[in-house]
Here is the input.
Amino acid sequence: MTRVYNFSAGPAMLPEAVLEQARDEMLDWQGTGMSVMEMSHRGKAFMSIAEQAEADLRELMGIPDSYRVLFLQGGASTQFAMVPLNLTAGGATVDYINTGAWSKKAIAEAKRFCNVNIAGSSEAQNFTTVPAQDSLQLSTDAAYVHYTPNETIGGVEFPYVPDTGEVPLVADMSSTILSRPVEVERFGVIYAGAQKNIGPAGLTLVIVRDDLIGKARGGTPTMLDYKVHADNGSMYNTPPTYAWYLAGLVFQWLKRNGGLAAMAEVNRRKAEKLYAAIDGSDFYSNPVDPACRSWMNVPFVLANPGLDASFLQEAEARGLTTLKGHRSVGGMRASIYNAMPEAGVDALIEFMADFERRHG
Ligand code: PMP
Here is the structure.
């Protein structure tokens, strides 16, 4: 068996050590005689797994006691609706920053419930940058400000955390969470689908400040109310137990490997060398403002798109998979989350140089 370097944007690679541990524990979790998949979510064994995962995440991210951590389902896409439903009453104004495809989806959903003010947008620049803090036109009466710190498709990342004063800041961190340290205190709500840097698909993490819980507007479905999940330890209904367990293994792997500061160092290095390889060649290019380039998702195009198919085919043959860009933009995209080893990035760079020598 050979494992490949999988550059998928999500579901994405998981650390090999985590997969091995899951394999070893598959049939009999710590002498219980059953798989985690077969356990009651309310039993002692699973409760210990769930609590440990939350404690480890709190330690890794430095999450203050005044925040609740929710382990939910529905993906980040469900948060596009849960955020306005929980943080606003009817008729409210909310601010959104538009930096690409995922911002747009969040905005479209919020418009179903609120008056959306676009406080900043990089659409005129074709989403190759993000609006500067001093260009943001924040409403005086906004219930919250929403932004996407990392646009997974465009490969554009905020180099700063927007300052929104007293107005709660809401961040869709799906494709950047755990890639580096963050000051959780700066945020009212952080949410992320798990399938990139956390664990398998099916789990959605929501980190929400206490004072923002318990204010869902009338008519909010029970399952979409943060308070219901907070009051029930994310076990109002059956949670995604196996994904929760695997996320816990990933958190332990992160702790063993130096935590988020150490991840940041490696992630910066991986991204810098890949961008340097792209910029150092006329054969490949990346259109994103260097100040806003994503550490996690690196899109690039070949000067001759006629070579795209051969590029992908040859890469695949070398065990470098899922490099095809998102269907909306074409070209290539290398997603290099925490679990992508530096050796995987090195192998990609070497292949790119070799492909250029032969076809350039
Ligand atoms: N936001 C961002 C930034 C994403 O990258 C994605 C998924 N690629 C989503 C939201 C949607 O997440 P989900 O599929 O978990 O609903």
